[in-house]
Amino acid sequence: MTHSHITIWWLRQDLRLSDNPALVWAAQRGKVLPVYIHDRTRGRLAGGATKWWLQQSLAALGKQIPLVIKSGETAKVLHDLIAETGADGVCWNRCYEPWAVNSDKDLKSLLRENAKVEVESFNGALLLEPWEVKNGSGTEFKVFTPFWKTCVGLLEARGVIPYPPPQVTWHEGVASDSVTFYPSRNEPDWAAGWDKLWQPGEDGAHKTLQHFLANGLQHYANGRDLPAKPYTSKLSPHLHFGEISPRQIWVEAKKHAGANCDKFLSEVGWREFCHQLLYHYPTMVEQNWKQNFDAYPWRKLEGKAAADFEAWTKGKTGYPLVDAGMRELWHTGWMHNRVRMVTASFLIKHLRIDWREGEKWFWDTLVDADQANNACGWQWVAGSGADAAPYFRIFNPTSQAEKFDPQDSYIKKWVPEYGTSLYPKPIVDHEAARKAAMDGYEMVKGESA
Ligand SMILES: Cc1cc2nc3c(=O)[nH]c(=O)nc-3n(C[C@H](O)[C@H](O)[C@H](O)COP(=O)(O)OP(=O)(O)OC[C@H]3O[C@@H](n4cnc5c(N)ncnc54)[C@H](O)[C@@H]3O)c2cc1C
Question: How many A from CA of 234 to the centre of ligand 1?
Fold first, then answer.
């Protein structure tokens, strides 16, 4: 191995050292300069909760390696670093948000042509590239079950093999800018206590996975719908920030083969499905995937509708499962999947508020806020997405609570005043809301998707 080369490893959503193809490539070339760039001009600005996570995750990584954090426009920062260090290579792991796909492509040509450096990008985030999985007609899948069956076939044929940890010689001595993602002066500190709930970083990700495999996986297939039980992995923020890879999860989970493992991996498969949908339908974050939903008569966010939205965000709708979910989200930065479906359905169908308003709220408050999964989740519930729940399937928040939280354990944890005179009355009547939602649906159905 020669150490005459210096390679900039540009980190984004791959905040880990193991199974990191960009890092492996950089290490093989010579010395590695690890850089995270805070660039406010690239893509959608991070929400509050993910800023908190990012700050902790970078701090954890910075304890292991001489990570350089820079602030500014990405191309300029990279050009400056090349000039400063004499680096002759730049690499990164791919992101699949539409803005990232476009600007990464431009950046690659710019660096190759102007800076005359070697540039490579890799797949560090998904089991398969979004363009690799095709149906019989050679196009992308729009339905999950055949998509995932095809993925599993491909993965089993190829084998899932994480990259071995590389021997890295770091290029040191480059100064970081002073960047604060989540100011500690936030008063009151919204994220107070989150460090007891979460351990951002690669170490935390692997501990979370192993804890889940030892304690939750055996209950997963039947228990993953029970919000009071710790039967899901809580790996979503770790996966979003790439502190662990789906390849590593696949390999570790497969050691516990069986129905629970298959169900769990199929949920990881939903993440793949959402990412490939976003890749092929880049407008999915802002626009209905089924365009006939453009005709839906959402309420304008003013007057009573604005008050209803606020009650939803604060967990004061008078529907205890909805309120418990919204409070869990506010207090922990995370919400159980079953309750995400119920709270989203309530906003869209009971309150007839545009799913995009809910998507924005989740974007700001979830520690796992992810463009692909969030837009996919909201459009699934709205009925406007690919392979979505039919619009007319309107969750009844009361019977959902009876079914999935029969002892009210989850509700009582988050809504301690439930059952007392302090608990608010329902802001809408279920039957009347259901009828209004179905009347709205009459305006979109019948038109082709
Ligand atoms: C309205 C709505 C919004 C959502 N927003 C997000 C979001 O911003 N970020 C996010 O990561 N997930 C989102 N989800 C999907 C899902 O709720 C979370 O991924 C899951 O609850 C995370 O908890 P977990 O890690 O314990 O999941 P587990 O059940 O342990 O699943 C393992 C992993 O599989 C993936 N996964 C599981 N379910 C889904 C799903 N339905 N769609 C896509 N990936 C899935 C996640 O990466 C998850 O970490 C949303 C779902 C809905 C209904």
Answer: 9
Q: Is 199 in the pocket of ligand 1 (CB under 6 A)?
A: no
| pLDDT score of 124 more than 60 | yes
274 Cβ closer than 6 Å to some ligand 1 atom:
yes
Q: Is the pLDDT of residue 449 over 90?
A: no
Domains of the chain with CATH codes: 5-125 (3.40.50.620), 126-161+203-280 (1.25.40.80), 291-442 (1.10.579.10)
Going by CA atoms, what residue is nearest to atom 38 of ligand 1?
Answer: 267
Over residues 327-368, the pLDDT tens digits come to: 999 999 999 999 999 999 999 999 999 999 999 999 999 999
**Cα–Cα dist 388/397, whole Å:** 19
Please report the pLDDT score of residue 448 as a whole number.
46
Q: Which residues, in sequence order, are bridge partners of residue 89?
A: 7, 118
Ligand 1 atom at minimal distance to the Cα of residue 380: 53
Nearest CA to ligand 1 atom 49: 236
In short, whether 366's Cβ falls inside 6 Å of ligand 1 is yes
CA of 112 to the centre of ligand 1 (A): 37
Other Cβ atoms within 10 Å of 222 Cβ, number: 12
C-alpha 373 – ligand 1 centre gap (Å) = 7
201 Cα–ligand 1 center, Å: 19
Phi first, then psi: give them for residue 75, nearest 5 degrees.
-60, -40
Instruction: Compute the distance between CA of residue 269 and CA of residue 187 in angstroms, rounded to an integer.
Output: 39
